[in-house]
Each structure stands twice: as C-alpha cells, then as structure tokens.
Amino acid sequence: MWAITGKMSGRPVTSSETKADLSTGSSPRSASSIPFVPPDASSPELTAKGNEHSPHVVEILHERYGTLVEALSDNTICKSGKSVSATEAASMRFVAERTSIPIPCVISDGPSTAPRVGHTIIMTRLEGAPLVDEWPNLDEATRTVVVRQLGVCLRQLSQIRGTYIGSSDGTATREAHLHQDKRPATTLPNVAAFHDLLVQQMSVAIPRDYVNYCRRALHDDYPIVFAHADISPYNLLIHENHLSGIIDWDTAGFYPSYWEYVKMLWDGDWQSGWAGKVTEHCDAHISENLAYSAIAQYIYL
Questions:
Q1: Of the residues 90, 132, 231, 275, which has the maximum number of CB atoms within 10 A of its CB?
Q2: Do the strands 76-81 and 119-124 form a parallel or antiparallel pair, or are they unpaired?
C-alpha cells in the first residue's frame, strides 16, 4: 500500500470536474456493459518498456512487501519490485478508458533493470493525502461526502461486466486472499470455480463437513464485474475534503459482484467509524460478508 502528496492529477480533468463526476455519478467515459474481451498480450500498449526511462529518484515514498515507490519529480512516480506486475498497469489503463475514477495515469511500464527487480510502472503523481491519515480529523459530514464519492466510483467499476474471473489483460487473478501456491495459473471460467477455489484455501485441519457447509453458503449466480479488490483508507487519497484518488490496482480484476464489498470490510476498521460509514453508503452485501467471514477465519493469510 502506498499514498503520496503531489501536484498533478492522474486524470485529464480539473479538480472541480472530478468532484462533479463523483457527486453525480456522471462519466465522460461510459462504462460498458458489453462483456470484456481481453486484448492481445503482445500489443504495444501492454509491452511498453518501463526501463526506457532512466529515472532520477527524488524521494523514496514507500517500501514494503517487495514493492518500492519512488518520487521522480513533483508530478511523476516510479513503482517497482518483485510484487509489481504488468497486470497492474493494464488494469489502470483499462479503468482510465472506461470511467471517470481519479487514478494515476500510466506513462509506461516494463521489466525492471538493475538495481530494481521484477516490473516497473512509471505513472503520474496524484494530488492528496492518504485517507487513513486524514480520517480521524474529518467531521461526519466530510466523511459522508468522501464515502459517497467512493460509492460512485465503485458503481462505475461494477458496470463493467466480464465473462471470466481474472485480470483485465486475460491473465489469472492476483487476489491476495488466495494462497500463492493455490492461485490459478489461468483465468477461471465462472463464479462457481472461484468459490470452489476459495474454500480450498481453508486449513486442512478444518472438518470437511464445515468446509462443505461454507461452500453451500456461497451462491454461484452473481454477475461478474470489475473490482479494485483492495479498497481501504490506505489506498484512498483525499484533497480539500473530497476523494482525489484511488491507488494500488495490483489485485484488480473481474470477480463476483459482491467481492469488492467483502474485501472492503474484511479486517475493516470499525472503531474509527470507517467500516460503519461504508455499510451506510456503499452496497453492504451483509449475507455475503457473513458467509465469507465464516471462511476467512480459517484461511491463513
């Protein structure tokens, strides 16, 4: 997770236009309801070389879990590391083309060169401060505004329908709640396959009758929609009491329609009022949250 303060918006709209879009739900880029067909992985857009840049690092902003985020200027940042992937860059481009959600604009990405390892994404630097730092100081009216704006963003994402469980570039899901050694090698064909894989994450010490009980609680008739899949106050930016950015798109992809909200409340902060505010102004999916809680307590994350 990372968040920064900067001067450039990652969207080609003004600050006032962004606030209007999030307040009304309007979008200059219509979110398509047509099933998404992933692009050719060899297309130039997906194979741009991030290492063509020779970035001069101004400041290290974040370093954790194999990810390094560095400021190259007031307007540009570099995200690199073994946990960074081309899929994250593809997801950001995918969302930027279809919504008015304020996200970083990808400049280029590609395999990293020394001293970095893994993958590198060069992107614009969003305006704002991490919501996790600002939330305790916000009054109730401002909290409501920010969470309602988040709800507008999530509804835009959910309008993008998919035909499989996986990433926007046609690769397998990078969902963090699936063990590394149990993640699928390819996309999953439907919601049922995702649910089957989900209960397989439960400890082998758990009685199979309980596992089967949990599986029956997960219905397979949900539509498949696009989701960020890691929404938290750490991944949201706020500026002038408005939502100014959503960052960290590494687990984004197509999931059952309830998954965004289950992940948002999993390990949510109820003490600060964040989780409660989310249930008031975003789709709560209460029964699905309860079903997943019964499963997740036996998954070693």
A1: 90
A2: antiparallel
* Rounded CA separation 136/255 (Å): 31
CA distance 124 to 93: 12
By C-alpha distance, which of 249, 170, 234, 230 is closest to 10? 249
The order of strands in the sheet holding 236-239 is: 129-130, 236-239, 242-246
For residue 77, list its beta bridge partners.
71, 123
Helix (H, G, I), strand (E, B) or coil at 246: strand
Distances (CA, A) of 8 to 68, 126, 141: 20, 6, 27
Query: Is pTM, for the whole model, over 0.85?
Result: no
Q: Considering only CA atoms, which of 225, 224, 227, 283 is closest in space to residue 250? A: 227
User: Higher model confidence: residue 131 or residue 112?
Assistant: 131
pLDDT digits (tens, 9 = 90+) for 137-184: 999 999 999 999 999 999 999 999 999 999 999 999 999 888 767 778
**DSSP, res 289:** H
Which residue, 168, 197, 196, 188, is CA-closest to 93? Answer: 168
What residue has token string 């020779």? 54
Report d(CA 100, CA 26) in Å as an integer.
8
Kindly state the percentage of the chain with pLDDT values over 70.
79
Asked if residue 170 lies in contact with residue 200, where contact means CB atoms within 8 angstroms, the answer is no
- Cα 195 from Cα 218, distance rounded (Å): 7
Mean pLDDT for the chain?
A: 82
Specify the pLDDT at position 58. 78
Residue range 178-201: average pLDDT?
88
Alpha-carbon torsion (74, 89, 296, 276), positive or negative: positive
One-letter identity of residue 293: S
- pLDDT the model gives residue 195: 96
What token pair was written down for 31?
């979110």
